Amino acid sequence: MNARGEFSSRLGFILAAAGSAVGLGNIWGFPTQVASNGGAAFVLVYIVLAFLLAYPVLMAELIIGRATRANMVDALGQISGSKVGRATGVWGFVTVSLILAFYSIVAGWMIAFFLQTITQFFGAESLSTWLTSHSIIRNVVFCGAFLAITAGIVTGGVSQGIERWSVRLMPTLMIIIVLLIIYVSTQAGAIEGWKAYLVPDFSRIMDPALLINAMGQAFFSMSLGVGTMLVYGSYVSKNERLPSLGASVALVDIGVAVLAGMLIIPAMYVALHNGVQIFSESGALIEGDSLIFTVLPALFNTMGSVGIFVAFAFFALMVIAALTSSISMLEVPVAYVVESKGVGRTKAVWMLTVCVFIASSFIIFNFESLFGLVISLTTKYSQPLLGLALCVFAGWVWRRDSILAELKLGYEGAEHSLFWKIWPWYVKFVCPVVIFIMFYRSVTA
């Protein structure tokens, strides 16, 4: 039996868990959602829903993880005492592996664009063109490079790998975002972006589309449902006070998403001022990969010589955000293979990394038909259903006295707390209904 790792500090866990939650979606998805859905009104609804919906599910994962001290498959098997629990864990294992497969492709693009800022600085035009052009070879090479970096970190285990790098990468990410916000805010056109981001349109606050979008963003931005938080929870000390620990993770995740908006939206309006098209033909703000790989590079090109340095910092930020998420994704299947199959950590990490790389390569070679399909299957369908399943396990299957006993380990008097008065019935009745409605609306939209 392999000895289990444990986070050596509270800060280490918070930064690692927040790093898992802070990914590419926070930086390119959240800002345009805000600007397209009533500005600060969306931010307000998002923050409320993050605590009304995402936080209770996050707590379910953390409590299950710490109580069982196990990977997702074994943990759900333990609390359910059935094969259904283990099957749900395997489903999460497969889902997170597929998410990592397409995620590493996009992260590979980030590395390529990051390196392009260096080759451009040294005048290597042909190499710069290759790095930013869509080709199978480029995609395979940089996807493989990103997965290798991820694997290198995860082989170090919990405290020497995941925690050690998270406490370096997350503060670096914060510093880069703040510096870029300060610089972009001094540019002509930025004030219009700040208005689009911060001025609320309260007439839209009860718009069903806004509520569904905010709910989805709150749920997915915390990387819930696929076992990353459950596995991280299993590495938390029994002395920690879980409700406040979970709240800290949620606050850091929300904070980074809001900061990303302070960077991206003013930057888009600076681009508009500099003659770059930022609206699609339908009048909506350009988002997703077109925003990151077309609009913003065009903006950097209009900034003159300083544009290369801004682009360098921005794509460094994107690579760091991708890494903090990918290490938690890879840890989910690694924890299962190490604990349930008795495979050594290093062997398990590289074996699973190769499997994910093969899946990524298969997507790359069939990009048009598979890339969007895999994203939809995992994030639109599988992830919310897994979140629903976790609520059922925590609210209906697992004994309440077992949950309370686990909470009291690091929280004397937990049974008298506001958290205990609300959370058990909330995760049992409210969360499953809300997640199901969100899932139904997103599928039928």
Automatic annotation (TrEMBL):
Keywords: Membrane, Transmembrane, Transmembrane helix, Transport. It is a multi-pass membrane protein. It is found in: Membrane. The keyword Membrane applies. InterPro entries: Na/ntran_symport, SNS_sf, YocR/YhdH-like. NCBIfam families: Na_transp. This is Neurotransmitter:Na+ symporter, NSS family. It comes from Aliiglaciecola lipolytica E3.
